Amino acid sequence: MSENQNIKVAVDAIVFGYQNNQLYVLLIQQKFGTKDSYWALPGGLVQNDESLEDAVKRELKEETNISVNYFEQLFTFGDDVFRDPRNRVISVAYFALVDSSKLNVKADSDAENAQWFKIDEVPALAFDHTIILGKAMERLKAKLTYEPIGFDLLPKVFLFSELENLYCTILEKEIDRRNFRKKILSFEIVEETDHFSPLKSGRPAKLFKFNKQKYNALLDKGFHFEIKFA
Amino acid sequence: MSENQNIKVAVDAIVFGYQNNQLYVLLIQQKFGTKDSYWALPGGLVQNDESLEDAVKRELKEETNISVNYFEQLFTFGDDVFRDPRNRVISVAYFALVDSSKLNVKADSDAENAQWFKIDEVPALAFDHTIILGKAMERLKAKLTYEPIGFDLLPKVFLFSELENLYCTILEKEIDRRNFRKKILSFEIVEETDHFSPLKSGRPAKLFKFNKQKYNALLDKGFHFEIKFA
DNA sequence: CTATATTTGTTTAAATCTTACGCATTTAGA
DNA sequence: TCTAAATGCGTAAGATTTAAACAAATATAG
Predict the structure, then answer these.
(1) I need a surface site. Which of A40, A89, B126, B226 has the fewest CB within 10 A?
(2) Is pLDDT at A2 greater than 50 in this prediction?
(3) Predicted confidence band at A129 (pLDDT cuts at 50, 70, 90)?
């Protein structure tokens, strides 16, 4: 058994946000790196006495000053032995969704610039981070269809049209507005609020909210969320 | 940054097999451990210059003498800092499916006993391997419904009734035999062979085979395999 | 040799779900 | 007051799923 194993363990965070029909991802750049240093996913080495999940939360907080409650493990990248040219490093990637309010807080820290990028304006990234981001996008798209995670990207109360646009934008598909509404409502996991939207034009729209308790209760009974598209 | 990180990286293999309406998993036991040493998943530390996938293939070969072409990454277990009491170890778990012919080869090596266990006769396992196996089972069940992986557990040619029983057994569900056949056939990814089964009783049955090329071609066109149950 | 049990394979009818729209409603603004 | 824009409701045709009936081919018991 290789007693002299010398492999470092890192974590990386893919944090997605959404605002104005745009998907965003949170990136950092070393403040004191070379001028043209690459942007990268937040992340860093795991400490000896720290769980992987605690590590990714800590690094994200340190590097961007953003806190996220729920992380999901995405994948562990370690097949390319030279993915980090300095040392053998394997990275456990986690992804998280935050609601739009977090997009406005100044994400920053002493050592790093942190910035939200529109997903189609992401520059070339450091290491294999472009690949990691690609895999995260795949997962996001897949999960959107079989778990009600779209709500995590929206404010607590939202319009049906916002939910609908979120699906169209992220999945890059057309949806029939009326069938989409009917489908979501049939699940009985979103409910009307008393409030109406501050309207721009057209008929004022009801604000809805996601009932997570109800969703969890239904899950126990064998309910399965699914949105399909042509 | 913790320059003195001291975390070991291991891989573990969950290898499933299937025979006679039974799902099996491959386990090992140290030959020179204490008498009552636990059974465990095959696995071990990753070498410095070796990809994670190569590592799991090597360990499996060394410990059980079984070779597997396709491994899928399952999950990385590293949140319990003391999952291995000797050292901080994180483990990247991989899972694989082998066809029934491999169940008969003597799986063994110098240093370990290797043995196939029926899935409901698995003993208490070392470390957190019971949890890992549980997660692998979940993944197997899920994938069975949305990818045609059942064929990987069967011989190259098989009976519809065998495929059907595999689904019933692993998912622990009842299926209508006739609707199941109709559904699978509608995908046009299995085809008849000229051969018939060596029969026991009843009407002789055609042997079928999975056409992987056709499946891949359909995938490109947007086809999506799915078997649902009540 | 015949009847029966057993397993395979085909077909159908009803129920359910999806898809593709039509159209009324409610507001802002010209 | 008319029009544009967006919301909200309903419905008919088509596709899919579900629940079976039934026919075919063989082994085996008597």
Answers:
(1) B226
(2) no
(3) very high
For chain B, what is the HEC assignment? CCCCCCCEEEEEEEEEEEECCEEEEEEEEECCCCCCCCEECCEEECCCCCCHHHHHHHHHHHHHCCCCCCCEEEEEECCCCCCCCCCCEEEEEEEEECCHHHHCCCCECCCEEEEEEEHHHCCCECCCHHHHHHHHHHHHHHHHHHCCCHHHHCCCEECHHHHHHHHHHHHCCCCCHHHHHHHHHHHCCEEEEEEECCCCCCCCCEEEEECHHHHHHHHHCCCCCCCCCC
CATH 3.90.79.10 residue window(s) in chain A: 8-140
Contact at 8 Å (CB) between B25 and B74?
A: no
Residue-level pLDDT at A107: 65
Give the C-alpha separation, A214 to B36, whole Å.
47
Whether A227 and chain B come into contact, CB under 8 Å, resolves to no
User: How high is the mean pLDDT in each 10-residue block of chain B (230 residues)?
Assistant: 81 97 93 76 95 97 93 94 82 96 76 91 95 98 97 96 96 95 97 86 94 96 89
Architecture (CATH level 2) of domain B149-220: Orthogonal Bundle (1.10)
Report pLDDT digits (tens) over A15-39.
999 999 999 999 999 776 666 689 9
- Residue span(s) of chain A under CATH 1.10.10.10 come to 149-220
Residue A179 CA, nucleotide D6 C1', distance (Å) = 16
Specify the CATH number for A8-140; select among 3.90.79.10, 3.30.540.10, 3.30.450.40, 1.25.40.10: 3.90.79.10
Which chain A residues are closer than 8 Å to B81 by Cβ?
49-51
Enumerate the residues of chain B whose CB falls inside 8 A of the CB of residue A9. 5, 7, 9, 78, 90
